[in-house]
Amino acid sequence: MSNIVAIAGGTGGLGRALAEAFKASKYTPYILARKANPELEKEIGVPVIPVDYSNQESLVRLLEDRNIDTVISAISNYDNSHSVEPDLIKAADQSKATHRFIPSIWSGFDYTTEQGKENPLAASRLVLFDALRDTNLQWTAIFPGIFLDFYALTVRAYVKKSALGIDIDGNAAAVPGDGKYPIYFTHTLDLAKYTVALMGLEKWEEKYYVYADKKTWPEVIGIAEEAKGVKFTVAYDSIEKLKRGEVTELPGHRDVYKMVSSGPEGKAIFQQIMSGVSVYMAEGHMVYEGPFLNEMFPDIKPLTVEGALLKDDRA
């Protein structure tokens, strides 16, 4: 086995965090992207290799020619119809050089089959498990809770802010249910460090969990208000409302509609996804039982919610 890692989708926010962490380690990273990016390549010192995910033969040849042992995916998928990752999984399985794969799960929820029938985001994750179970690859999925990058005010973040629960720029929040349940948070720069550490294990479990902090939404809202010195406009969406596919629209949602789809259906798709995810939170389904990467690798000191919003508290 080699120490060479390919990060698919490595020009995005999470992908860049992963690429930088691997660049600072004993591993040799490559970024796989749909097009060349010489500026990013020069900036972070990691080669960006243009790939055609629809060309199975060229993918296999690339993995073998570069002697890539592990593929880590940070490809963004909102639904199965646009997913190229199953093709990448097949290519990795066919490659004689490639032995391990980490799919683009990176989810707060360990979705069930039933949830996959209801929610396109859940379905897009579950299809990757099905694809990997049909291979001879060693693989694992990582569940980091919600990205702290969405709300970060005091530290750099490559993942853009997102109005998930709290719109940090819009001074507003929409709490699913009564907000009494715990939510897990991890910053992607720390998630990348845990991923590098995981590479050192000889054998992987199928799933690992990690969290840098655990708080309720009202607790996070209080920290955000302290950080910004303003009172947030806060709505509480009942489970009944969420099950009707309705969520309180926050100012930051409008930008996300365009990311989900360039057409007018972007809002409807987003609301379907968000209402489903919000129901899972409101019903307390973000419950992790381990194994926990933060317990396995205690030397990594991750950022907390207070650290991301008030003052970086990493030792």
UniProtKB/TrEMBL annotation:
Signal peptide residue numbers: none
InterPro entries found in the cross-reference section: NAD(P)-bd_dom_sf, NmrA-like, NmrA/Isoflavone_reductase-like
Q: Name one Pfam family in it.
A: NmrA
The keyword Transmembrane belongs to this UniProt entry's keyword annotation: no
Mind listing the GO molecular function terms for this protein? oxidoreductase activity
Coiled-coil region(s): none
Ranges where the NmrA-like domain occurs: 3-238
Q: Does the keyword Transmembrane helix apply?
A: no
Q: Which UniProt keywords apply?
A: NADP, Oxidoreductase
Q: Which domain of life is it from?
A: Eukaryota
Give the UniProt family note.
Belongs to the NmrA-type oxidoreductase family. Isoflavone reductase subfamily.
Question: PANTHER family from the entry?
Answer: NMRA-LIKE DOMAIN-CONTAINING PROTEIN, NMRA-LIKE FAMILY PROTEIN
What is this protein called in UniProt?
Answer: NmrA-like domain-containing protein
Organism of origin: Pseudopithomyces chartarum
